[in-house]
Amino acid sequence: MELRQASRARRSQTDSLDLLIRGTLYSILLFEVFLVAQIFVGDQGGLVAVGALLGLGHGVVCGLVLRGSLGTMLRGEPLDRRLWWALGGAAVVMVAAILLLRGGENLAGSIRLSLLVVGSFSLYAISPVWSARRLTVASLVLSGVVLALTTGDAAAGDALVVVVAFAVLWPLFVVVVAGRMTCWMLLLVWQLDAARTAQAQLAVAEERLRFSRDLHDVVGRTLSVVAVKSELAAELARRGLDGAAEQMLEVRQIAQDSLREVRTLAVGYRTADLDAELAGARSLLRSAGIDARTTMLAELPGPAEREVLAWVVRETTTNVVRHSDARRCTLDLMQGDDDTTVLLVVTNDGIAPDASAPVSGTGLTGLRERLSAVGGRLDVRVEGGTFVVSATVPGLADSAGDHAERSGTATRDADWRSPVPFEPTSPTVSTDATDPTDATDPTDGATPRD
Is 346 helix (H, G, I), strand (E, B) or coil? Predict the structure, then answer.
């Protein structure tokens, strides 16, 4: 509701500014009525009114052309050719009418004024579709024609400086300053409004992408665990072995935890803990009958990098259970070759014999986006009959520099500077003391695969 109200308020402000600028553009055309009427001042009173009507008529035509030109500038609409003909015809009729009514001994002055006024406002009407350079050249040409008619005019000799100044500055002011610059301001308002709209749409798209990625990582892992443990409990109950009730209680606990995670995910505060994910990965893999081993040979990175690595552990172990026939899986956290990076390498032997190039799905794409946000990268490859996923993140020193650059401070929590030993937790699966990889493993042939 607040977003809609803010959008309406912003749109109302934009429309008000658009209306103000358009009103200014159209109101400038009213000056033509006054200027044309001034040509007939000193003559018969009726001619002043006729001049005002002529100025009004030409102003209406210029307003129609201006409206079409604004549509071309703002929306890319083609300018109707009939408007060009109407503008040219109205200009010719205006000049001819002024000369006919105001001719006589002051014919040169009438020609100068009519050309200056009619030409300036005609160029003003097409200022939205012509460039500032083109309009400037056209205005100077118009001024040159007027000045050429002034040469040798004895009547203009006494006020030659004023005539020259007016002939040069008036077209430039009307066409370039009042016309083109005002249209540019209107175009800028439209572009800013379009940019704000695009920014809002991108923010919505980014939030949808975040929710989709987190939903895949959280719910996908949880459903895989529930499927494995439910199948294990069913197999234990079918064989009359102890532990089925414990497995179902774990399923209930996992469902409750998943509900809490989905709630935090919906408000954007979902986080992952590396130690908890490593322990959960061992438990999940052991429950699926996969020999899981973890080694930690590197100093743990900062909080942001640890969280990203936790998501890598969650996604990769879920993929091992869902998409492979692995019997062994290792998770190794080690120092990079240059001692400035930390690598998490997840390897499993469940790759198909004829597999060549790995395929990146939604989960791996989401991991790449998470790693890219902290300056890391993800590599996926098939190597010697094993499927290898390698995640690289900046180490402590490099990570601290990156975070200082982003946040403006190099302060780090001292708890993250020292390595935290990982103590593997024992699997929670209750079996009859048999090795999970022997022939009596209840998950053999029962692990769900996609």
Answer: strand
Pairing of strands 377-383, 386-394: antiparallel
Residue type, 388: V
Contact 310, 348 (CB under 8 A): no
Decide if 174 is inside a domain.
Answer: yes
CA dihedral angle for residue 322, residue 325, residue 329, residue 331, rounded to 10 degrees: -30
Cα separation, 205 vs 199, in Å, equals 10
Residue 129 CA to chain centroid, in angstroms?
A: 29
Domain that holds residue 353: 273-429+440-450
Number of domains in the chain: 2
Low-confidence ranges of the chain (pLDDT < 50): 1-3, 9, 154-155, 399-450
Instruction: Flag whether 376 is in a domain.
Output: yes
How confident is the model at residue 66, as a pLDDT?
93
pLDDT at 321: 82
pTM flag (> 0.90): no
Of 160, 176, 202, which one is at a domain's C-terminal end? Answer: 202
| CATH code at position 324 | 3.30.565.10
Give buried/exposed letters for 332-344 (b at 16+ CB in 10 A, else e). Answer: bbeeeeeeebbbb
Contacts of 418 (CB under 8 A, 6+ apart): 299
Task: Enumerate the β-bridge partners of residue 406.
Answer: none
69: left (phi over 0), alpha (psi -120 to 50) or beta: alpha
Spell out where 38-190 has E strands: none
**Domain shared by 195 and 277, yes or no:** no
Q: Are 213 and 257 in contact (CB under 8 A)?
A: no
Residue 326: φ, ψ to 5°: -70, 145
Q: How far apart are CA 309 and CA 288, in angstroms?
A: 22
Conformation bin of residue 130: beta by default, left when phi > 0, alpha when psi is -120 to 50: beta
Which strands, in side-by-side order, build the sheet including 328-335?
291-296, 328-335, 341-348, 386-394, 377-383
Burial of 274 (0-12, 13-18, 19+ CB in 10 A): buried
Residue 286 shares a structural domain with residue 185: no
- What's the distance, Cα to Cα, between the start and end of the chain in Å? 41
Chain segment 261-312, per-residue pLDDT in tens:
776 666 555 567 888 888 888 887 887 788 888 888 887 788 888 888 988 9
Count of C-beta atoms within a 10 Å radius of residue 402: 16
